[in-house]
Specification:
The strands form 2 sheets. This protein has a two-stranded antiparallel sheet. It has a two-stranded antiparallel ribbon with strand order 3-4. It is mainly alpha-helical. The protein is globular, with a radius of gyration of 18 Å.
Length: 192
């Protein structure tokens, strides 16, 4: 079963694994250029990483590979899917799909990548949608007098996402407006 045969990525910042959950019947047996790659299986020139920067640690997990691919393409690079490179990968292996951790990072980073790279109206709409989710969670918790643990947990999650976006958006906007899209992490940096 395929997890990723390259990643579809459009100018609106929507990303999705090509072929996810499909049985491999040879439909992706041809090498081809793609807009993004899965971070679980990438091989890059060191010079490309120096030019674009490493994974942006502010993403932590989910969309960090998409951000790197977007920066590589903006730096003039191309990305190629090669079917001979096969890696065993556990989808959402760092979290459980639809767990609070998964929802937090996917939701926050889905908006963050748009703030960093997509058209301004697309980024604003993504932030508005996430803010609406937070508002709905607030209303639901208030209506139940904060006595429903499921509603309270959803509200805490949505507030964490809002806090994370408010904390990280200024740097993403700075990268966007200055054109300095490189990650601050450096190749060869020593751990302190």
């Amino acid at each position: 079963v395929i997890n990723n045969a390259g990643t579809n990525l459009n100018d609106s910042g929507e990303a999705g694994d090509r072929g996810i959950y499909e049985v491999d019947t040879g439909q992706f047996d041809a090498a081809e250029n793609v807009n993004a790659l899965c971070g679980a299986s990438m091989l890059m020139r060191r010079s490309a990483l120096i030019e674009a920067g490493l994974f942006d640690s502010s993403f932590f997990m989910y969309y960090e590979d998409t951000d790197l691919c977007w920066r590589l393409r903006k730096a003039g690079g191309s990305l190629r899917y090669v079917p001979d490179s096969v890696v065993r990968h556990v989808h959402t292996g760092s979290s459980v799909e639809w767990s609070p951790t998964f929802i937090f990072y996917v939701s926050r980073n889905h908006v963050l990548i748009k703030i960093k790279h997509a058209h301004v109206y697309v980024a604003a709409a993504a932030y508005a949608r996430e803010s609406a989710r937070c508002l709905r969670a607030s209303v639901a918790a208030v209506r139940r007098g904060f006595r429903n643990e499921r509603c309270n947990a959803e509200l805490r999650l949505r507030l964490r996402i809002q806090y994370g976006l408010l904390k990280l958006a200024p740097l993403a906007l700075l990268h966007r407006w200055t054109g300095y899209l490189r990650a601050t992490d450096m190749i060869g940096a020593r751990a302190r």
